[in-house]
Specification:
Layout: H1 28-34, E1 57-61, E2 69-75, E3 78-84, E4 88-89, E5 101-108, H2 124-137, E6 149-159, H3 164-178, E7 188-195, E8 198-201, H4 205-211, E9 222-230, E10 235-244, H5 247-310
Parallel strand pairs: 5-6
Antiparallel strand pairs: 1-2, 2-3, 3-6, 4-6, 7-8, 7-9, 9-10
Helix pairs in contact: 2-3
Length: 311
């Protein structure tokens, strides 16, 4: 296992002190009760059907100067950075590929997760998120326009407080648009945590942790559903479920997720419009500076001509 030499590393067989706290020893019922207060609200003040995309959303583009396109998405405490690079020829490819490929890599920052420090080497969760991100983005990209080439997409999760896959998909879609990659539609995604008869829209990390735990009763719906879609085309690009959920609950959850993905669209459009305005303003400033330099150069030339004529 690789060692991070920049920090003090404890022994690999050590046990975290969190395992001996009261919070760690709580039962499933106690953890479930702590998610909702007396007024029926969550810990962050939201209702069960309220997402963080309305009041707690922040996003922007052009975060990484070395990348062709980049984006930054912040859903309160969930912070994601995505970078997209130019298409490049697929290495060690013997046969011609009619459709371009997407190479996706999701990486957690060592300090991103509240429960444990992430290792430097990619673990199983990061690999699963990378595969899920690629499958969610492939239907939205016009891959037939760059055959035998691949586009590299890198997602770095700075802080994880739930819905990291949905935030990564949204950030990657925004970065692809910023990189001028041909796409059929903008990508948006959302998650729902199901605990019994309660549905937590856009769940936090604590709510996701309770949702994927195994309850004592097997007939209780418990799980996490993440869905990505193309809002303008009304097409679902990917659907992922973790846990045991019956059919009726899944259909009801899909209707909720479709509405939330549509609510996300104006936020992404606002970021893109602001980006276009900034590009036009920057281009006007560059044109103005170029004209000023040209006028100064012409004035200098006139002075030189006048001096030559006097001589």
């Amino acid at each position: 296992m690789p060692t991070d030499y920049r920090r003090f590393n404890g022994p690999e067989d050590s046990i975290s002190y969190n395992r001996f706290t009261k919070e760690y020893l709580k039962s499933y019922e106690d953890l479930h009760k702590d998610l909702i207060d007396e007024n029926g609200l969550r810990k962050d003040g939201r209702s069960l059907d309220e997402a963080r995309s309305l009041q707690m959303f922040f996003g922007r583009t052009d975060m990484i100067s070395q990348a062709k396109g980049s984006s930054y998405i912040e859903l309160k405490k969930t912070k994601v950075v995505c970078s997209v690079f130019d298409p490049r020829e697929i290495v060690h490819q013997n046969e011609f590929c009619a459709l371009g490929q997407l190479y996706c890599e999701v990486k957690f920052a060592p300090f991103s997760c509240p429960r444990q420090r992430r290792p430097l080497a990619p673990d199983s969760e990061e690999k699963a998120l990378s595969v899920a991100l690629r499958k969610a983005l492939e239907p939205s990209v016009c891959r037939h326009l760059f055959p035998n080439y691949q586009i590299d997409i890198f997602v770095y999760i700075l802080e994880h407080d739930g819905s990291c896959l949905a935030a990564a998909i949204t950030a990657a879609g925004l970065a692809l648009v910023n990189a001028a990659v041909p796409m059929y539609d903008i990508m948006t995604a959302c998650s729902v945590a199901i605990i019994g008869d309660q549905m937590f829209v856009d769940p936090t990390e604590a709510e996701e942790n309770v949702a994927i735990m195994n309850p004592e009763k097997n007939d209780i719906n418990n799980g996490l559903i993440t869905m990505s879609m193309m809002p303008n085309l009304k097409q679902i690009s990917d659907f992922r479920q973790i846990g045991s959920i019956n059919f009726d609950c899944i259909m009801k959850t899909m209707e909720i997720l479709q509405k939330e993905c549509l609510k996300f669209l104006p936020n992404i459009q606002r970021i893109l419009v602001l980006n276009v305005r900034n590009c036009f303003a920057q281009q006007k400033l560059l044109d103005k500076e170029a004209k000023e330099r040209e006028a100064a150069l012409n004035a200098k030339m006139e002075e030189w001509k006048a001096l030559l004529n006097n001589e």
